């Protein structure tokens, strides 16, 4: 093999190794910015998208219905505490800020934030549905998977009662 071909081979190998390293670093950096979607029952039962329980400090999105009677607002700050539920459980959410105009009890929401201890989500953003027929796609898919029917069939989970 002549020296010119040898140099081309080394250059090609160097470019391929550099490209592979760059792609690996980009994918590793983006991995920490992915927000996985969970339902309250998946968090409580540990059956998430990767079959792992979300860990403290993990970014995630949680979707479901706002539990009636659970919205508590702090009179002195913009802090709001509420619970998101589905047919099999409820998760507490804390949000600091102004909630969307369409946010109300019994409506579908998706909260994006960070998992805290004791299954509490510290939300950085809360999205509310825009009319009576809309359910966020992730919530609709999760409801189908849980065999719970349409969002209008949800009832407040009460211990000892049978769920639809």
TrEMBL record:
Keywords: Cell inner membrane, Cell membrane, Cytochrome c-type biogenesis, Heme, Iron, Membrane, Metal-binding, Signal-anchor, Transmembrane, Transmembrane helix. The chain crosses the membrane at residues 9-30. It holds the Pfam family CcmE. InterPro entries: CcmE, CcmE-like_sf, NA-bd_OB-fold. The keyword Membrane applies. Residues 143-164 are annotated as: Disordered. It is found in: Cell inner membrane; Cell membrane. It comes from the Bacteria. GO terms for biological process: cytochrome complex assembly; protein-heme linkage. Gene3D superfamilies: Nucleic acid-binding proteins. Belongs to the CcmE/CycJ family. This is Cytochrome c-type biogenesis protein CcmE. The lineage of its organism: Bacteria, Pseudomonadati, Pseudomonadota, Gammaproteobacteria, Enterobacterales.
């Amino acid at each position: 093999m002549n020296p010119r071909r040898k140099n081309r081979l080394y250059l090609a190998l160097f470019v391929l190794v550099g490209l592979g390293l760059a792609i690996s670093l980009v994918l590793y950096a983006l991995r920490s910015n992915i927000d996985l979607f969970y339902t309250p029952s998946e968090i409580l039962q540990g059956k998430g998208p990767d079959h792992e329980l979300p860990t403290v400090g993990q970014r995630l999105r949680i979707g479901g219905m706002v539990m009636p009677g659970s919205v508590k607002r702090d009179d002195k700050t913009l802090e709001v505490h509420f619970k998101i539920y589905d047919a099999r459980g409820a998760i507490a959410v804390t949000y600091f800020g102004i909630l969307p105009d369409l946010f109300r009890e019994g409506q579908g929401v998706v909260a994006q934030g960070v998992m805290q201890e004791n299954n509490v989500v510290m939300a950085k953003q809360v999205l509310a549905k825009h009319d009576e027929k809309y359910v966020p796609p992730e919530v609709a898919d999760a409801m189908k998977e849980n065999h719970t029917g349409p969002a209008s069939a949800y009832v407040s989970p009460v211990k000892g009662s049978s769920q639809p």
